[in-house]
Design goal:
By secondary structure, this protein is an alpha/beta fold. The chain contains nine helices and eight strands. Strands 1-2-3-4-5-6-7-8 form an eight-stranded parallel β-sheet. Helix 1 links the parallel strand 1 and strand 2. Helix 8 crosses helix 9. The protein is globular and about 45 Å long. The structure holds nickel (II) ion (NI). Nickel (II) ion binds next to loops.
Length: 258
């Protein structure tokens, strides 16, 4: 059975068939899903999904590109919401300098990233970190805040093997999804082949980043077997081992999952 550590089923692209799709997950081998909020609306809809489906757990947090949604009132809402039994993480939070190059905006991203890391520490929850074009600042910030005391995953990992090792040294997990199946993803294939399997989580980031041969289409957790297959081939191990070990990893990190 597969543990899907990062999905966005609150996304409007699932409006037409969300219930049908989610109802079919378990019989198709997807045991547990972490639905991840990225803006306030997404976080609220994540809570609703966790109430509707036994096998869906949630993460609440505000993505660096959506920090316009954040203020003290929303922060307090997240704090209270994170205490619900099925809210298993704070995320996705982090830094994204790909879209935002303005220094003022970057400073604000770092401020709210820190605040949400502290929230996770206070509530004893793991973090789901998004980091794009911000490798150095993310690592500096996580190290500066004693990241080794706040367990987490670097989702949709896009940096070097050396950077992956820095996070693993702090006990972090590395989230690997559809990109690993792309021909040109040499760096990520190297990471997936070489880091300890005990530090890998499977994820889709659906509806985004569908793996080959579904690339470009709407993604869903049902495509995770392609990711499992690729990691198994890269490491020369069985698909069963990839599924089983990544499942155990996810259950260790997301301790609220039953
Ligand atoms: Ni995401």
């Amino acid at each position: 059975m597969i543990f899907e550590s990062h999905a966005h089923y609150d996304d409007r692209r699932f409006d037409s068939d969300r219930d049908k799709l989610l109802s079919s997950m378990q019989e198709q081998g997807i045991e547990t899903i972490i639905n991840v909020g990225s803006d306030l609306r997404g976080a609220q809809e994540t809570v609703a999904l966790t109430e509707k489906y036994d096998f869906i757990y949630g993460a609440v947090g505000i993505h660096p590109s959506d920090i316009g949604d954040l203020n003290e009132e929303v922060y307090t809402w997240m704090q209270e919401t994170s205490r619900r039994p099925k809210i298993a993480a704070i995320g996705e939070i982090g830094l994204d300098y790909y879209w935002d190059k303005d220094e003022e905006v970057k400073r604000s991203q770092r401020y709210w990233f820190c605040r949400q890391m502290e929230l996770a520490r206070e509530e004893g929850l793991p973090v789901i970190i998004h980091s794009r074009d911000a490798a150095e600042d993310t690592l500096k910030l996580v190290q500066g805040i004693h990241g080794e005391e706040i367990p987490g995953v670097i989702h949709c990992f896009s940096y070097s093997l050396e950077m992956a090792k820095e996070y693993i040294r702090m006990g972090y997990y590395i989230g690997i999804g559809g990109v690993v199946t792309f021909k040109k993803a040499k760096k990520l294939k190297e990471v997936a082949a070489q880091i300890p399997l005990e530090h890998i989580l499977l994820e889709t980031d659906c509806p985004y980043l569908a793996p080959e041969p579904e690339r470009g289409k709407r993604n869903s957790s049902l495509n995770l077997p392609y990711v499992v297959q690729e990691i198994a081939e890269l490491r020369g191990i069985s698909r069963e081992e990839v599924e089983e070990v990544t499942r155990e990893n996810a259950r260790r990190l997301f301790w609220k999952v039953k």
